[in-house]
């Protein structure tokens, strides 16, 4: 399992930036759509050999000036710049931002009240372990039929990697699995004993499907996007999601799902509307 997260992030980001984005020509004999190391080096004003050392993990402490130049060359967003800086500090194991505090599982009354206000919108509260700590009734009607809320507490990463129903529930399972690994790695990862224990569990249960992603997916999950869900009764849904980070002391995030198209909006209205007394949604 790779410990070179800085090099992994630089390599994967370099592969996603096209020459056109940075004002470079695209030749007909080009083998890759991303940037070459030599191009990154030229844009950042450093040597190719130095970019190679960074990507291979042979140098993990670039200066702030070099970090800024690389961030400019790779067209990093503000969030990606913060992540890049954090990765250079993570090479020193002597300090952990969270100390020995366990995963945040306490749901503050104000956060629960916020979830109540969001009804019937599908929304959930997650901690760093991807434990599902609280949710709206709209979210329950959305995911309970696929089995996601089983467990005490339910755990999103565990469901995605160890429950066979997840591949049927998520038509884009590979992308969802990537995002779950990115979420687990977004922080101390194996330096945190609780996350390390979950990673060990998923390594044994899911094998290469999990470990390959640990080695290749950077720890920078998307805070918003669109996901597809195959609901047993509502059919195929396209759900936009927004992730709202709570204060660091909570170690939690609020995820809100919204319809991404008119068909999904109509299906959610039917799914989340109050059911007449004596009736309930039946999966299958």
Structure report:
This protein is of the alpha+beta class. Helix content is 45%, strand content 13%. The chain is built from 13 helices and 5 strands. The chain has helices spanning 5-16, 37-44, 48-56, 64-73, 78-89, 109-118, 137-143, 156-162, 165-169, 173-185, 193-206, 208-216, 262-272, and strands spanning 123-127, 132-135, 224-231, 235-245, 252-259. The chain has a 5-stranded antiparallel sheet. Helix 2 packs across helix 3 (48-56). It is globular. Residues 277-284 have low confidence and may be disordered.
Calculate the mean pLDDT score and round it: 89
Main sheet record: 5 strands, antiparallel
What kind of assembly state do the chains in view correspond to?
Answer: single chain
Number of helices: 13
Question: Based on DSSP secondary structure assignment, what is the total number of beta strands?
Answer: 5
N-to-C order of helices and strands: HHHHHHEEHHHHHHEEEH
β-strand percent reads 5-15%
Query: Low-confidence segments, ≥5 residues, pLDDT <50?
Result: 277-284
Biggest sheet, strands in spatial order?
2-1-5-4-3
Using only CA atoms, what is the Rg? 21 Å
The end-to-end distance, rounded to whole angstroms, is 39 Å
Helix-and-strand structural type:
alpha+beta
Overall body shape:
globular
Helix content: 40-55%
Supply database-style keywords.
284 residues; alpha+beta; 5-stranded antiparallel beta sheet; 45% helix; 13% strand; disordered C terminus
């Amino acid at each position: 399992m790779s410990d070179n997260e800085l090099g992994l992030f630089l390599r994967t980001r370099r592969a996603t930036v096209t020459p056109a984005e940075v004002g470079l020509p695209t030749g007909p004999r080009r083998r890759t759509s991303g940037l070459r190391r030599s191009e990154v080096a030229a844009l950042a004003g450093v040597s190719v050999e130095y970019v190679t050392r960074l990507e291979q993990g042979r140098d993990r402490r670039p200066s702030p000036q070099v970090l800024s130049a690389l961030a400019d060359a790779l067209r990093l967003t503000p969030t990606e710049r913060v992540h890049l800086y954090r990765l250079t500090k993570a090479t020193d194991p002597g300090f952990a931002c969270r100390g020995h505090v366990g995963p945040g599982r306490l749901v503050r009354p104000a956060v629960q009240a916020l979830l109540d206000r969001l009804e019937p919108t599908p929304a959930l509260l997650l901690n760093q372990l991807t434990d599902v700590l609280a949710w709206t009734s709209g979210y329950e009607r959305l995911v309970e039929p696929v089995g996601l809320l089983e467990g005490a507490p339910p755990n999103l990463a565990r469901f995605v990697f160890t429950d066979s129903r997840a591949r049927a529930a998520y038509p884009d399972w590979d992308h969802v699995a990537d995002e779950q690994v990115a979420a687990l790695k977004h922080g101390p990862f194996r330096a945190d004993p609780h996350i390390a224990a979950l990673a060990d569990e998923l390594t044994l249960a899911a094998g290469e499907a999990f470990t390959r992603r640990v080695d290749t997916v950077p720890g920078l999950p998307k805070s918003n996007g669109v996901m597809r869900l195959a609901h047993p009764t509502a059919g195929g849904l396209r759900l936009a999601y927004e992730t709202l980070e709570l204060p660091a002391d909570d170690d939690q995030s609020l995820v809100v799902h919204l319809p991404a198209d008119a068909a999904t909006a109509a299906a959610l209205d039917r799914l989340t509307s109050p059911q007449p007394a004596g009736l309930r949604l039946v999966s299958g």
